[in-house]
Amino acid sequence: MNIQNHSFLNAHMDWQRSDFPTNFEFGVATSAYQIEGSQFGGCGESHWDRYAAKSGNVVGNEHGGIACDHYNRWEEDLNLIQQLGVDSYRFSTSWARIMPYGKGQPNAKGLAFYDRLIDGMLARGISPNLTLYHWELPMALADKGGWCNRDTAYRFADFSELICSRYGDRVDRFATINEPWCVSWLSHFLGLQAPGKTSLEAAALSMHHILLAHGLSIQAMRSLNQRNLGIVLNFEHAQPADDSERAILATERHDAIINRWFLEAITKKQYPEPALEGLGDYLPESYSEDMDIIGQPIDWLGINYYTRQLIAHEDGCGFPATKTVLGPRPKTAMDWEIYPEGLGQLLPRIAEQVGADMPLYITENGLATNEPIIDGRSQDGLRLDFFNQHLAEVKGAIDKGLNIQGYTAWSLMDNYEWSFGYDKRFGLIHIDFETLKRTPKASYYAWQKSMQS
Ligand code: GCO
How many CB atoms lie within 10 A of CB 38? Predict the structure, then answer.
């Protein structure tokens, strides 16, 4: 990779807005638990608060209690988005803030907060792009089994209905769930995020119920005549770590779990065979009866992309018998290999699956780097290179005729990176977590220039 030494003042991108189609939408993203501060405004306890409170689950035992204090500093943050010059802001509504017990009487302060936030976006000419669920399941529902309990999907449909009837007149695009793979496999089989379960049964149940929740939510919002409904899936470019048959088969299983399970359920109303082999026995008995609900038509698909994975066979363990091997390319502070071509290769594959007409949005892409702040400034060269390389892939895909309508950078500002705490900095804006001071990085100014030309 060509890591240039960008000086702060002349930092700029290799591309500009006018290189992309006229209505191409540029945006920035965050999520509620990662920025708002769950201690404020009558927010209920979520399974993330509980998970983070248990020593050893999160680096430094950090939690989202204060996070970026966005609950109180939202105006400053919206001003920064406006000055950045992007078109839209992808944010999420905290279920625990709005329904502290997961159901029943909503928290008036929580509802009023999102009124202020959405009205604030509209007043600044920023298009609201709302994700209903970005992971803070109310603890009251987690206590009843969370995503392993079918009832949670129905409670989510109720939550969706409430949000849609309250804000639907002012929101341009709704996503039901952010990254169902993370909600289920990462959190219920790999145990790396709340609730930290590690069983195939919990994985299979949550992988099905999160999709049922998606389908029921789409139905609820359609019945309110809401337009522009979609979901945000995360994809990885998966390749075998070596030429062996075992590595090829392991890659097929890995790919089926992360790249195919959710997409094929929604587009084909079925689960992929290589994943069913291990998960089928644990699915609810009559799961196939839910596939019509899960396969509700959507209006757009969100794609999150960060890295590629090289996959090898893992001996001596049960399904899926896979392990990841670090690739040779430079890594981000997350130790994720920087592999922009992976995005270029995934896009046509996804487009073929969803159909050429389906609008695709890159809903997250970005990296964690820990470049130091010098004289109040970060040079931020790695981030500039990362965006340049990935946007070149997006542009290439558009030039080939793919229906990609937008690109959203992760993230507006440094925030709570889940089990990694506050140390992994994905923001265009630096946050000093002691003082909560916001300092735009060089990449912020480079984006700003590209947005103007
Ligand atoms: C995810 C989430 C974000 C993360 C980001 C970086 O993809 O895991 O949507 O909440 O912060 O992706 O890991």
Answer: 25
Q: Is residue 5 within a helix (H) or strand (E), and if so which, with residue range?
A: none
From 304, 361, 424, mutation site for ligand 1 pocket: most ligand atoms within 8 A of C-beta: 304
Residue 372 burial by Cβ neighbours in a 10 Å radius (0-12, 13-18, 19+): exposed
Q: What percent of the chain has pLDDT over 70?
A: 98
| 249 alpha carbon – ligand 1 mean position (Å) | 28
pLDDT at 181 over 90: yes
For the chain, domains (ranges, CATH) are 3-451 (3.20.20.80)
Cα(449) to ligand 1 centroid in Å equals 26
Query: Would you say the CB of residue 193 lies under 6 angstroms from ligand 1?
Result: no
Nearest CA to ligand 1 atom 4: 417
Confidence band of 2 (pLDDT split at 50, 70, 90): very low
Q: Is the beta carbon of 179 within 6 A of some atom in ligand 1?
A: yes
Residues 126-131: what's their mean pLDDT? 98
| Phi-psi category of residue 74: left, alpha or beta, with phi > 0 → left and psi -120 to 50 → alpha | alpha
- Write out pLDDT tens, residues 338-378: 999 999 999 999 999 999 999 999 999 999 998 777 777 77
Express each pLDDT in 86-109 by its tens digit: 999 999 999 999 999 999 999 999
CA–CA separation, 186 vs 293, rounded Å? 24
Q: Which of 262, 411, 418, 425 to mutate to test the pocket of ligand 1 (most atoms within 8 A of CB)?
A: 418
DSSP summary character for residue 329: S
Evaluate whether 329 touches 317 at the Cβ level (below 8 Å). no
Catalytic positions are 179, 364
196, 182 Cβ separation under 8 angstroms: no
